[in-house]
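Predict the 3D structure for this chain.
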Amino acid sequence: MKLTEEQINRYSRHILLKEVGGKGQQKLMNGRVLVIGAGGLGSPIALYLAAAGVGTIGIADADQVDLSNLQRQIIHSTPDVGKAKVLSAKEKMVAINPDLNVVTYETWVNADNILSMIEGYDFVIDGTDNFAAKFLINDACVLAGKPYSHGGILQFDGQTFTVAPGESPCYRCVFPEPPPKDVIPTCSRAGVIGVLPGIIGTLQATEAIKYLLGIGDLLHGRLLTYNALRMRFREVPIRKSPKCPICGEHPTITEVKDELDALTVCDLGH
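Done. Predicted structure below.
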């Protein structure tokens, strides 16, 4: 499939890059990425994937836009308050790039639907706001062999790394199980600086684009942390754990399940 004159003009700055070019842009247009969460992290992720020309973008979230979201969830605006987040997000994505195929899932991910949801995608991005979803996404992607990007934020700190099932450490290699209740403060108690999800979410979108293009070094085995107050990034090496309950030498998790007692925290911020 050749690029049209309009597409050549739209993606000209990509095409000028020797690492991308016309063939790379076609890879992006044929790519399929699922974004789970349409809030703080999901907003910049969805906008930049749309602008980059990723052909099919799925976006999953069961929530509606609230006035308190607008401090950080830049894909939504004041007239969207009360609207389903996935529909609000789709409107902005298609406004940027009408050639997109945006698939909306107005539902929370759970053990019953996540495997079928991720099945048709090349890459998954975790933009969720609670530990239950984060462990669920990790387990589903590891069991299904789907690469994915983890992202988390709280107050002034953010973190991200990318999981390649069977090759790199997974989320449970670093965090074997959810923390005890009340150890991590909630969003309403702790807060989050509004620009933080933009920084971490943009990094996650970059990982997805690099994966689809097959270029650069992904955050495999590297936890990238960021502190906004000190304006400092730090890279922490992480390793596969032989005792990991899902990808270790003797896995005890062989199917997805919901972590019903996990505590909601401000990773995405509803």
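The first helix runs from residue 5 to 10.
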